[in-house]
Structures are given as C-alpha cells and as structure tokens.
Specification:
1 helix, SH3 type barrels, disordered C terminus
C-alpha cells in the first residue's frame, strides 16, 4: 500500500510539472507585442511585451491568447507566441555611419 501511494505521488508530481511547462509561451524574437484588454484589435492596447518574454497561457479565443504576466491578465495575438524560449545570441544591427560627427545618424532605434 505504501509503495502504491508513493508511486501515485510521484506520478502526480510529474504530471503537474509537465502541465505547468505546457502552459508557458514566449513572445517571438524581434517582435514587440501589443497587450490588449480583450481578444481583438477593437480592444484597447494596455501595454506591450518585449521580444522573448515568458508568459503563462490561460486561454484561447478567436486567434487570441489570454496570458498572465506579473499577476495581471492580457490578450495577445496567438500568431506572435511560440512554445520554446528564444535564442539569446541575437545582436541588434549596427547603426549606419552618416559621414561625420559622432558616427551615428539620427535618433535611437531602441
């Protein structure tokens, strides 16, 4: 009986861990993603997510995904989420040389 109980606890722990990881998603690399108050472009933008942000998936509706981040809920377009972490080897492109002065043209791209 004791072995059966221990086996059940181990199995439940494994299922809980896999279910938790299945609910994670990341915003796509190179995309700043609008966070909306509801599932559609007709809802207000209430924030944005930087590229490669890890979020918790709560639900889906009409091509939109409800996510939880820092104890708040947001809706994002499902097509800009991925189920794996981003590669952190990204290097932003260098600014073009304008031919004089500081070596940079115009304002900041960041």
């Amino acid at each position: 009986m004791k072995k059966l109980l221990i086996s059940a606890i181990v199995a439940a722990s494994a299922l809980t861990a896999s279910a938790a990881s299945a609910n994670s998603a990341w915003t796509q690399h190179g995309v700043t993603l609008n966070a909306r108050s509801g599932p559609g472009t007709n809802y207000h933008v209430i924030g944005s997510f930087h590229p490669c942000t890890n979020v918790h998936v709560v639900g889906h509706q009409y091509g939109w995904t409800k996510v939880s981040y820092n104890n708040h809920y947001y809706w994002v377009s499902a097509k800009y989420l991925q189920n794996h972490a981003c590669n952190n080897s990204y290097t932003p492109p260098k600014k073009k040389h304008s031919g004089g002065g500081s070596g940079y043209s115009g304002g900041s791209n960041y």
